[in-house]
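Quick one: co-fold with 2-acetamido-2-deoxy-beta-D-glucopyranose.
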Amino acid sequence: MEFLKFSKATWLCIVLATTVSAQSKCPASDYGPAAGVIESPGFAQHVNYGNDMSCTYNIKVAEGSKILLTVDSLITETCCDRVYVYDGPNTHSRVLIIWSGHLGAGSFVESTGNVVTVTFQSDNTVNAAGFSIRYAPSNAHLTPTTTAKPKLQIVNWKDRSTYWNSRPSPTDIHALVLHHTVDPTVQATYDALNNRHLSVHYIAAKNGTIYQLVDEANRAWHAGTGTWGSYTNMNDISIGIEIVNTGDEPFPTVQENAVAELSAQIVKRWKILPKNIVAHADFQEYDKTDVSGYFDFKLFYAALDMYPGLYTTKLSESDQKKVLYQASTTYSAAVKSIQERLQKYGYYLTADGIFGSATQLVVEAFNRHYCPEIFKQEEIVNGNEVRFAQNKRWYGISEERLAYLVAHS
Ligand SMILES: *[C@@H]1O[C@H](CO)[C@@H](O)[C@H](O)[C@H]1NC(C)=O
Ligand SMILES: [Zn+2]
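Sure, here it is.
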């Protein structure tokens, strides 16, 4: 950020006062072994943290101790400025919890080992007071019996839907399908499903409350007849979650955490393979764009302990913006190779070496799911929000991530 010189007109300084005073330098990065406090930039000076911040706090206590983190105060922009707590020496470790929004004093989380990594990420708009979080070595016998992680709230709405039937085989459940609703509320989603004679197993409200419409053993009507890998009728073998979201807005952390928690339970219950956790757009007959690029799959997979190596590299801006293949009717061996690997992973397309509209849509779906940073980049252009851009554009595919997925499935 550029700071204003005093020679500028005074009114500008007043208008921009909050921006000018926002703190944009991260505090120290190494903490421990004794108990102490980590704070957001500027917290001690009563100054808001800055935009686009990325601060890391490495906390290490004596071998054999765990670390108890307790929030004294935490106020951040709910959607977009987040504190990530990782259960180990770096950000590839498992995510213990993500804190954002307004948290009262006393929320806490405990590590499993003597090292945690905390990162604070803010986006490019809106800042707030930030946080002060205490850390202390804790011994196993002092382990708290509850954690700050909210318990999943599932409301039974199973008597409210008639638009489902029995599965061909009630225990043949192999896939989890994530949707966003387009409709802005649980009620509107429920009404829309009923009006169209459709259903889904779960609806996840913005505040994290889950509404169950259909038993998992039954066949909800949410996924059409799309093909994924060897499965040709997704409703027969999948469980669906509709996430309340219009498709062009971020997902609140509390909602993403609840969806991850519910998914973790489903995946464990039915032993669903990582590659069979799909977004609707991954398999439907190419007219679907859900779940949108705003959905934080990085957080999602971390919560499920899946694909630990998938998001470890940062796609450079030029990689993100590079259009690798233009739609074309000319045969290309490189296109054929990409098509074959996408197909091997599960996507439905013909490996004909021609970058036609079907391949273009599959690449788009792949990027929305596995390269979400591409979509985040698009939110603001020239000071304007680009509505729906995240669903309309396609870029070069991340070869590295495709290779990783094919190798780990
Ligand atoms: C969550 O949101 C739903 C409506 O979307 C509301 O009915 C419910 O009371 C809310 N729950 C909490 C705990 O705020
Ligand atoms: Zn859908």
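If it helps, The first strand starts at residue 30 and ends at 31.
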